[in-house]
Every structure is written in structure tokens, then in C-alpha cells.
Amino acid sequence: MKSIIGVSLISLVLGWAVTGTIPPATITPDEATLKYFPPETQGIVFIDVAALRSAPLVQDVLSKGQFTLPKGLNDLEENTGFDLRRDVDRVTMGKINPREKLVVADARYDKFKTEQFLKDKGRQVETYLGRAIYRDGDAATSFLDNVIFFGTENAVKGAIDRITYPGSAQIGSDLLDAIRTVEAGNQVWAVGNFSQEDLPATKLRESMPAAQILKSLRHGTYQMRVDRDLHARATGNFSDADTAGNLADMARGFIAVAKLQVAKQQPDLLHLLDGIEVSNNGSALMVRIEEPGDLLLKLQETRPKFGRHVQ
User: Fold this and answer.
1) For residue 197, is pLDDT > 90?
2) Residue ranges making up the domain that contains 211
3) Is 116 helix (H, G, I), strand (E, B) or coil?
4) Domain end residue (candidates: 168, 186, 216)
5) pLDDT tens-digit profile of 139-161?
6) What mean pLDDT do residues 109-133 have?
7) Does 178 map to a domain?
8) Are both 158 and 226 inside the same structural domain?
9) Among candidates 199, 203, 204, which has minimal Cα distance to 220?
């Protein structure tokens, strides 16, 4: 009997290995952080900064001095000792609606020095439900123990409301279900309803066909894992299959033209483009990126340091 059971288990495992049907482990939503976001939240972006810091590729970038802070953050470090590269562990960003955004950062910092720095910078101080809020126009910042809130004023005040009056409804079940599809091990991920305006890499002229197509983007997911290499996967769901197919054709055409242009002059960029795969299925468009770390480092060494031109 024991031998029969053992053979059966081995057969089952081998069958999974051959057919590839073992489902990947997925993440569990961090409800301790998600409680700061209201039920109407439309999208969530998460960055596990601590896990990224320990990734071999990121350690190589940091050791080579290829990541420098913008001037404003340099001033913050010099006056408070707070180093974004060392003292931030996790960042969760929420799109509540097209106007309201909230960022929640788990970090280690000197609260007194940080608040004094904002006062010296002329930030307006308001006390709301017993907590100090530092305002700069419509932007606001507030501090808890090892947590920083930053975003639009209404979003920050809403997070404080939810701390003061616990038991409020959490984010929607659709968004929670989407988060549960993210594979474990990805240090960066995003899920939810995003528009062209939410995608900084797609600041396209309104007259461009791609800009018009992106207006029909409904929701999507993005996952990125960094070890010695970079692995990313994005899925965008559009209003119809024709729209997804047209954008996929555009992307594939752009990659093909780019390959022809750089094939002889910049072979490293050609290898970079080889790591990008675009496909579509129904109203969904999928992008898969697999890039070797040594190639990314080589290309980065030929470019200005990160953050040098960020004001």
C-alpha cells in the first residue's frame, strides 16, 4: 500500500512538471496597509523597496553609483539623515479617482527633524483630528509611527479618518481579487483601472493613434521581479478586441522598425528589444519583458546617472 501511494504521488508530481499545471504561488493582500485606502479606490501600485535593495542587479547598480537622488531629496537627506535608498521599505500608491492619489510609505525616519525640514521649506501646517498635516498647494504630507502619508489633501485626510474611526469598509472586492492574482516574488506590481494619464511612459500627443487607443484602456495588471535579471509582465484589458489588436500591431511594428534602425549601429539595443514580446488575445494585450542584468548594466553605464536631470 505504501509503495502504491508513493508511486502515485511521484506520478502526480511528474505530471505537473511535464504539463506545467502547477499554479504559481500568489501574494496575500496586505490589509494592514490597504485599510488606509477607501472603498472607491480604482488602482493600487506596490513597490517592495527592501526586497529590491537585496536583489543582485539592484545591488550592482547601487555599488556602481548609478542611482543618485534628485536635489530635493538630497536636501532632505542632508538635513534629516533620511535616505530614500536605505530607509524606505515599502511604498503603496493608490489611485482613488482621477484627481485623488494617496501614497503610503513604510519607512524609518526622525519625525522631529523631518517635520522641521518641511516647516523650514515653508509648508503650511494644519492639525486634523490631532495629527499634523503639512500642505503645499493641493499636496499634503502627514506622519505616523514608521509610516508616511503623501498625496492630495483630501486623500491624506481620508487616511487619517480611517485611522481615527477604524472598522471602515476596505477597498473593493474586485481590486482585492486582482491583487490576489499577482505572483509571489514580484517586488513591483500594479492592478486596477488606469488611464493614459496614469502611465508616465505614455505621454503621447493627442493626435497620435496610440494615444487615442489608450483612451479605451479599462484595467490591467503589471508585475516585475528583479534578481540578477529583470522579468516583467503586463496585461491591459481594452474596450474591445479590435482595439487591443490594433495596439498590439502598433507595438510589434514599432519594435520591428527599431530593430532595423539599431541592428548595425547599436547591437546591445537590439538584444534589449529581443527581450520584449507583445501578444493579444481578445480584448487583452500582453507584454512580456525578459532582460539580462549584465546587458542593462552595460547600457546604463553609457547613459547619465538616474535622477541627474530630475528636478
Assistant:
1) no
2) 194-306
3) helix
4) 168
5) 999 998 899 999 999 999 999 99
6) 93
7) no
8) no
9) 199
41 in helix, strand or coil? coil
Examine the domain organization and report whether 161 and 224 are in the same domain.
no
Note the pTM of the prediction, 2 decimals: 0.84
Give the burial class of 209: count Cβ atoms within 10 A of its Cβ; 0-12 exposed, 13-18 middle, 19 or more buried: exposed
The verdict on 70 and 141 lying in the same domain is yes
Between CA 131 and CA 235 the distance in angstroms is: 40
Amino acid letter for position 303: R
pLDDT value at 93 more than 50: yes
d(CA 189, CA 90): 12
Minimum mean pLDDT range among 27-31, 196-200, 259-263, 281-285:
196-200
Is the Cβ–Cβ distance between 52 and 226 less than 8 Å? yes
Please report, as a single letter, which amino acid is at residue 187.
Q
% of the chain residues with pLDDT over 90: 58
In a domain, 6, yes or no: no
> Could you give the number of structural domains in the chain?
2
β-strand partners of 126: 133
SS3 100: coil
CA distances from 89 to 49, 50, 167, 241, 265 (A): 5, 5, 26, 39, 40
